């Protein structure tokens, strides 16, 4: 999601831009108070400083009300003011050109890639025009190349770092939302696969858990087209999945494509198998893959897979604990009913029918209270009891002659 979609984010953008405008005005005006070249046209440098201070006031007063498009225009105006300082800076023009770096840093951090590139291209064009108008600038091409090269490198670095940080923040937000927003733990596998698929931009993501007999693994959740899942049918993919589960370490899935038609620059990485660990032991595997092999695996893909696998481990543990709690509740309800009915049976056999009926009523009341307590407990947890959740793992032996 692009930055600047909320009033709070636009306020941050406006304040940051106001800071840059204010800093630029302060530094440029200070150069006029310090000893400077006689070739510097003081009025030509002072006017951009005054205009910049006016922009600062507007940005502070209207913070949060300016849209991203308006802020892009204001940043472009900043490029014009910097270029004016360079144009009238005389022998010190190269010092003013350093402020172009601020344009790159701001645009690369806050704007989309296309908008940031447009800002840098505009700055490069204006700087080239200014150097062309300055007849006394030695080796103008060198000045332009080094200046714009520095601006471009700084912009690319900030853009890459910003993209990685925001992607990681988005992964954390997605995991937190899944952890707090799902009432049915059985749905967590599908949500985990969908979240990882979106984060890694994979074609398919699957979650595998061991079979009850331990003889292999089965797919318990999937995100992506079923056709894309065929990439896991290859021998290298199956070996990677088994190795991830056996060793508890992530395994790269390599492609099986070979032969004369392959180019030496073609990719060989098909996907990644990330084990789901509990207490240091693998309890499942979270695997992602692309239909078109890649030359390598981005670091953030591995980080995202580890993050979602860790949350899946928590979900599996929560599901097991919930299952045990519900089984204990079922046993308590069953045992209370059985005990009450046994008492009622003996009372009836002894001929005390009234006491037997009273015992049955009391038993039904206790059972009703126990079930109500369980429903309230589940409701407070944001979930609901599904059919069979309060079933005993074994039937009661009461009334069974073989087990009496």
Automatic annotation (TrEMBL):
<dbReference type="InterPro" id="IPR029016">
    <property type="entry name" value="GAF-like_dom_sf"/>
</dbReference>
<feature type="transmembrane region" description="Helical">
    <location>
        <begin position="109"/>
        <end position="129"/>
    </location>
</feature>
<feature type="region of interest" description="Disordered">
    <location>
        <begin position="382"/>
        <end position="404"/>
    </location>
</feature>
<feature type="transmembrane region" description="Helical">
    <location>
        <begin position="141"/>
        <end position="159"/>
    </location>
</feature>
<feature type="transmembrane region" description="Helical">
    <location>
        <begin position="12"/>
        <end position="33"/>
    </location>
</feature>
<protein>
    <recommendedName>
        <fullName>GAF domain-containing protein</fullName>
    </recommendedName>
</protein>
<feature type="transmembrane region" description="Helical">
    <location>
        <begin position="74"/>
        <end position="102"/>
    </location>
</feature>
<keyword id="KW-1133">Transmembrane helix</keyword>
<feature type="transmembrane region" description="Helical">
    <location>
        <begin position="45"/>
        <end position="68"/>
    </location>
</feature>
<keyword id="KW-0812">Transmembrane</keyword>
<keyword id="KW-0472">Membrane</keyword>
């Amino acid at each position: 999601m692009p930055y600047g979609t909320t009033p709070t984010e636009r306020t941050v953008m406006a304040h940051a831009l106001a800071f840059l405008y204010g800093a630029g005005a302060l530094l440029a005006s200070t150069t006029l108070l310090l000893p400077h070249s006689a070739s510097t046209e003081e009025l030509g440098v002072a006017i951009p400083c005054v205009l910049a201070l006016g922009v600062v006031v507007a940005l502070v007063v209207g913070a949060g009300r300016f849209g991203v498009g308006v802020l892009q225009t204001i940043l472009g105006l900043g490029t014009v003011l910097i270029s004016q300082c360079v144009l009238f800076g005389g022998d010190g023009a190269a010092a003013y050109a350093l402020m172009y770096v601020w344009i790159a840093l701001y645009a690369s951090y806050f704007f989309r890639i296309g908008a940031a590139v447009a800002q840098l291209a505009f700055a490069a064009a204006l700087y080239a025009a200014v150097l062309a108008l300055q007849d006394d600038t030695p080796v103008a091409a060198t000045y332009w190349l080094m200046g714009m090269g520095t601006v471009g490198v700084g912009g690319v670095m900030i853009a890459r770092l910003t993209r990685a940080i925001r992607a990681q923040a988005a992964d954390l937000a997605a995991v937190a939302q899944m952890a707090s927003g799902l009432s049915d733990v059985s749905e967590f596998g599908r949500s985990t696969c969908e979240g990882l698929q979106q984060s890694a931009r994979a074609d398919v993501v699957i979650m595998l858990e061991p079979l009850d007999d331990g003889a292999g693994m089965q797919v318990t959740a999937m995100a992506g087209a079923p056709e894309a899942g065929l990439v896991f049918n290859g021998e290298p993919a199956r070996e990677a999945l088994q190795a991830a589960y056996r060793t508890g370490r992530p395994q790269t899935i390599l492609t099986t494509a070979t032969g004369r038609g392959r180019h030496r620059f073609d990719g060989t990485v098909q996907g990644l198998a990330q084990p789901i660990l509990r207490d240091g032991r693998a309890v499942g595997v979270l695997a992602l893959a692309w239909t078109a092999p890649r030359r390598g695996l981005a670091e953030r893909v591995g980080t995202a897979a580890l993050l979602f696998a860790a949350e899946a481990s928590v979900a599996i543990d929560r599901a097991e604990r919930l299952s045990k709690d519900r089984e204990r509740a079922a046993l308590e309800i069953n045992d209370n009913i059985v005990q009450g009915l046994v008492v009622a049976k003996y009372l009836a056999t002894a001929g005390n029918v009234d006491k037997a009926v009273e015992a049955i009523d009391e038993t039904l009341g206790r059972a009703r209270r126990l079930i109500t307590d369980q429903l309230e407990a589940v409701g407070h947890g944001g979930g609901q009891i599904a059919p069979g959740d309060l079933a005993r793992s074994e039937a009661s032996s009461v009334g069974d002659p073989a087990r009496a």
